[in-house]
Design goal:
The protein has a single domain, classed as 3-Layer(aba) Sandwich (Rossmann fold). The protein is 60% helix and 10% strand. The chain is built from 8 helices and 6 strands. The strands form 3 sheets. The protein has a two-stranded parallel sheet with strand order 1-2. It has a two-stranded parallel sheet with strand order 3-4. It has a two-stranded antiparallel sheet with strand order 5-6. Helix 1 packs across helix 8, helix 4 runs parallel beside helix 5 and helix 6 packs across helix 7. The chain is globular, with a radius of gyration of 16 Å. The relative contact order is 0.18. The C terminus is likely disordered. The structure holds adenosine monophosphate. The site of adenosine monophosphate (AMP) has 18 residues, from helix 2 and helix 3.
C-alpha cells in the first residue's frame, strides 16, 4: 500500500521477482481494460480520469477472479487493493473461502510534496491521463479519506510493516526486502521454501 506516487508499481516488480509471486495491480488491470476498450474499460474510464475510485463491487469482482487463476495458488502481491474498508471485508471473505491469509501489509511512506513532484514528473514523461495537478489532488484526498482507514484496520491486526519510500528505488527496495524477508521465510542464503 502507499499513496499515488509512492512507488508501489515500481517496487512490485522487485517484490514479485524475489518472492516468486504474481504482482496483481488493480490500477494496471483497469488501465489495460480501458486500453482494450472492453466493457469494463468503458465503464471505468471516466472514474480513472477523474481520480475517483472504481465502485467496490466491480473492483472486488476483478480481484476475486484474478486470485482464482492458477499462478496465484502459491501466493501473490496485491498492489493498490484493498483501498476501502468495504474492500477489506470483501478480501477477508474471499480469502476465508480459500483458507488463505494475508501475511503482511506493506506501506510505502513518502511525504506529500514529494508525491506531487513525482506524479507531475511521471505525467510529463509517461503521459498517464490521471497524472495532472487536479486529478493528483483528488487521488491524494481519496487516499487520505478512504485508504488510510484501511491501513489503520490492518495495523490493529498487527500485520502492517511501514517503510520509508524516499531516496532511490534501490534504497527503498532494500528496506522492503529487510521488512518482507522474515515474513516470507527468506534467509540471507536465499529462500528455503
Ligand atoms: P493506481 O494505478 O493504483 O494509482 O490506480 C489508478 C486508478 O485505478 C485509481 O485512481 C482508481 O480510479 C482505480 N483503482 C485502482 N485500484 C482501485 C481499487 N482498489 N479500488 C477502486 N479503484 C481503484
Amino acid at each position: 500500500m502507499g499513496a499515488p506516487g509512492s512507488g508501489k508499481g515500481t517496487q512490485a516488480v522487485t517484490i514479485s521477482a524475489r518472492y516468486r509471486v504474481p504482482a496483481i495491480s488493480t490500477g494496471d488491470m483497469f488501465r489495460a481494460a480501458v486500453a482494450s476498450g472492453s466493457p469494463l474499460g468503458v465503464q471505468v474510464k471516466a472514474l480513472l480520469d477523474s481520480g475517483a475510485l472504481v465502485p467496490d463491487e466491480i473492483t472486488d469482482q476483478v480481484v476475486s477472479s484474478r486470485l482464482r487463476e492458477p499462478d496465484a495458488t502459491a501466493g501473490w502481491l496485491l498492489d493498490g487493493y484493498p483501498r476501502t474498508l468495504a474492500q477489506v471485508a470483501a478480501l477477508d471473505s474471499c480469502l476465508a473461502e480459500y483458507d488463505k491469509q494475508l501475511n503482511c501489509v506493506l506501506v510505502i511512506e513518502v511525504p506529500t510534496e514529494e508525491l506531487i513532484h513525482r506524479l507531475l514528473l511521471r505525467g510529463e514523461r509517461e503521459g498517464r491521463s490521471d497524472d495532472n495537478a487536479e486529478t493528483i489532488a483528488r487521488r491524494l484526498d481519496v487516499y487520505r479519506d478512504q485508504t488510510e482507514p484501511v491501513i489503520a484496520q490492518y495495523a490493529s491486526r498487527g500485520i502492517v510493516a511501514r517503510v520509508d519510500g524516499t531516496g532511490t528505488v534501490a534504497e527503498t527496495a532494500a528496506r522492503i526486502t529487510a521488512a518482507l524477508d522474515p515474513v516470507a521465510g527468506v534467509t540471507s542464503r536465499g529462500c528455503d521454501c
